[in-house]
Fold this sequence. Notes:
Layout: E1 10-17, H1 20-25, H2 27-42, E2 46-54, H3 64-69, E3 80-83, H4 93-102, E4 108-111, E5 116-117, H5 121-154, H6 159-163
Parallel strand pairs: 1-2, 1-3, 3-4
Antiparallel strand pairs: 4-5
Amino acid sequence: MLSYIAGTMRVVGYVRVSTEEQAKSGLGIEAQIEKIRSDCKLYDLDLVDIVVDEGYSGKSLNRPGLQRVLKKPEDSIADGIVVAKLDRLTRSVADMGYLLNRFFQDKQLFSVSENVDTRTASGRLVLNVLISVAQWEREAIIERTKDALRAKKREGRKQEEMFRLDMM
């Protein structure tokens, strides 16, 4: 459960899915939107908009929806951003540091799943730990994928064979 400090804030929800398949199915998007709406209602946050980036990786901040959300604080219609999960915003420690220094000096970040509220010192500490874990997870996935591809190459299998689903 989030420990929001009392008082209504205007927030923008931010939703992201990485793959075209996730974007087309809508399942990831709808689940994130539902989590955001539910917590905003529960904690009396005024959800003024929900911005969706479909088919974009979390490895870069260069996403059209995110760039709209991160426009200059004085131009923004909201006091903060709500995400369903931190890795929907970024999986990079460096990018999160940039966001904290540039955007979240004047705005707040709320993460539903991880119970993060950057208005508190403990919320900022938890945020830093969780982003480090998200970056590690992304790097570990990349390492495992590269290792598997190298092993298959040594076995003489073509890349398209490695990703083909065998029908039973």
